[in-house]
Write a structure and sequence with these properties.
The chain is of the alpha/beta class and 551 residues long. It has twelve helices and 25 strands. The chain has three domains: 21-259, HUPs (Rossmann fold), CATH 3.40.50.620; 264-341 and 468-550, Ribosomal Protein L25, Chain P; 345-458, Ribosomal Protein L25, Chain P (Beta Barrel). Helices cover 25% and strands 23% of the residues. The model has no long low-confidence stretch (mean pLDDT 96). The protein binds adenosine-5'-triphosphate and magnesium ion (MG).
């Protein structure tokens, strides 16, 4: 008996399955991820990467990585390298299909000649201001350029002069001859080529005319035989133009399908604004763990599997929407909970002297991860001097405070019950030391004391611990909708980074490695920072243990 499981398909999968049923392109499925190398990839790009590579995986197709590098002014090889690293980290492989729109400059140029020859493109000498004024507004027709009716010969000659570097920047452009009265502004004789005397990071000084994004993008898809060209909604209005080029050049008919871009609370996705954060040093580079970039997520310890799961979980929408940050965080926590090694770390230490302990060092056994029996156990030291968190002691306890205070008892995780007998203060009134006694019969797992205590706190042994720096991150913005504010300065959270410089960690953490997740008990998930700190260990908080939004 066959078991049928109902699979819910999104609208893109429906389109693809119908194409397969109709044997369109002989059932071939070929997608691409087309970044412009003008910034680092962010979580919105991750959504697009997972979608494009995911569809190819599901339907036995292929995915190209294509850099849409048509604007030498904003692009850089630094971005190309980071993009490749991030896609690999996310878990996808474009194999040998790494392409560049700039590889097609010659072909695109020949397509332009073809359009000129068929009377469908012309050289315009108007200034940028004149072109923009004549385009008009969507509600009324634009006006034809006085250069619109140049002969084919003249256009070929003038375009050749542009290509040969004989014309100065801004003096001429090549435009498609479509319809200045179209209600779709993109069809009002869009610009195909502009003159830019800027060397390109791949073609050097070979070209001084560069195709516009709108002219290059669709044709690049056709050149690569992309069957399903998936992009975000803002390109819906560009589709008629891309189809016009396909028809008039008689090239491979890639089908464009639009979906709503991913928007996430508290998160900016505009590359322009992210670049501003970096340039104005409001963050410490593109991979600052407060950034929404993939390199920042990697540095912060977010597992790539969690990003992939999130991308699938949010689905594909046809309308703009904003995803709650808690959805992302919960998925990340689920992954971390399964794989993070538990350890004790005291972030804000307070020394405790166990006055009646005179047995040197004792080794206690603790589980590395109760969620994963295969992770085994480890031994931790306990002796006369230990550290606990400052806020696990209150001189005058408030209501419902069940941790340490004078005369009160708590359990030390995996160790003993202790009672606070005395405390020592410095000149400023800060508590600097506690004197406690432990209950010898209360050892965890062998407790015969009969005592009941309400709290268990974490601790580390003073002489078997290391001092490290720990960085706590909060949202970079104080508002859930940062994109709707004019300037980012008014919504920057001044407390988005807190540096704790004398945290105490279990001694074994000296061997912590990049790529591993640790749960600092009661404190959150952490990872070793991958930056250069001259041999000093720095830990980043990946995430708190609880949803900070459901308080
Ligand atoms: P730009 O303004 O520089 O074009 P961009 O965010 O569109 O910025 P691209 O490098 O062009 O950046 O994006 C590459 C691909 O990622 C495109 O197909 C784009 O549609 C997609 N993409 C970008 N942002 C998102 C997002 N927030 N959600 C889903 N897909 C996105
Ligand atoms: Mg883009």
């Amino acid at each position: 008996m066959s078991e049928s499981k109902e699979i819910v398909r999104n609208f893109i999968e429906e389109i693809i399955e119908e194409d397969i049923r109709n044997n369109k392109h002989q059932g071939r499925i070929h997608t691409r991820f087309p970044p412009e190398p003008n910034g680092y990839l962010h979580i919105g790009h991750a959504k697009s990467i997972c979608l494009n590579f995911g569809l190819a995986n599901t339907y036995g197709g292929k995915t190209n990585l294509r850099f849409d590098d048509t604007n030498p002014v904003t692009e850089d090889v630094e971005y190309v390298e980071s993009i490749k690293q991030d896609i690999r980290w996310l878990g996808f492989d474009w194999e040998d299909r790494e392409y560049y729109a700039s590889d097609y400059f010659q072909q695109l140029y020949e397509f332009a000649i073809q359009l000129i020859k068929s009377g469908k493109a012309y050289v315009d000498d108007s200034s940028a201001e004149e072109i923009s004024a004549r385009r008009g507004v969507p509600t009324s027709p634009g006006e034809n350029s006085p250069f619109r009716n140049r002969s084919v010969e003249e256009n070929l000659e003038l375009f050749e002069e542009m290509r040969a570097g004989k014309v100065k920047e801004g003096a001429r452009v090549l435009r498609a001859k479509i319809d200045m009265a179209s209600p779709n502004m993109h069809m009002r004789d869009p610009i195909m080529y502009r003159i830019l005397f800027t060397p390109h990071h791949r073609t050097g000084n070979k070209w001084c005319i560069y195709p516009t994004y709108d002219y290059a993008h669709g044709q690049s898809d056709s050149i690569e035989g992309i069957t399903h060209s998936i992009c975000t909604l803002e390109f819906e209005n560009h589709r008629p133009l891309y189809n016009w080029f396909i028809e008039n050049l008689d090239i491979f008919p890639s089908r464009q399908i639009e979906f709503a871009r991913l928007n996430l609370e508290y998160t900016l996705m505009s590359k322009r604004k992210l670049l501003q954060l970096v340039n104005e040093k409001l963050v410490d580079g593109w991979d600052d763990p407060r950034m929404p970039t993939l390199s920042a997520f990697r540095r912060r310890g977010i597992p790539p599997e969690a990003l992939r799961e999130f991308a699938t979980a949010v689905g594909i929408a046809k309308r703009e929407n904003i995803i709650e940050l808690s959805r992302f965080e919960n998925i990340v926590r689920n992954h971390l909970n399964k794989k993070a090694i538990r350890t004790m770390a005291v972030l804000d230490p307070l020394k405790v002297i166990v006055t009646n302990y005179d047995r040197g060092v004792e080794w206690l056994e603790v589980e590395n991860n109760p969620e994963d029996p295969a992770s085994g156990k480890r031994k931790i030291a306990f002796s006369r001097e230990i550290y606990i968190e400052q806020d696990d002691f209150m001189e005058i306890p408030s209501d419902n405070y069940y941790r340490l205070s004078p005369g009160k008892m708590v359990r030390l995780k995996a160790a003993y019950i202790i009672r606070c007998d005395q405390f020592v203060k410095d000149q400023n009134g800060k508590v600097t030391e506690l004197h406690c006694t432990y209950v010898p019969e209360s050892r965890s797992g062998q407790d015969t004391s009969g005592l009941k205590v309400k709290s268990v706190i974490h601790w580390v042994d003073a002489s078997h611990s290391i001092t490290t720096e720990v960085r706590l991150y909060e949202q970079l913005f104080t508002k859930p909708d940062p994109a709707s504010f004019e300037t980012i300065h008014e919504i920057i959270n001044p407390e988005s980074l807190i540096i704790l410089s004398d945290a105490r960690l279990e001694k074994d953490m000296a061997n912590a490695a990049i790529g591993f997740s640790y749960q600092f008990m009661r404190k959150g998930y952490f990872c070793l920072d991958n930056g250069n700190h001259d041999g000093k260990l720095v830990f980043n908080r990946t995430m708190t243990l609880k949803d900070s939004f459901s308080k």
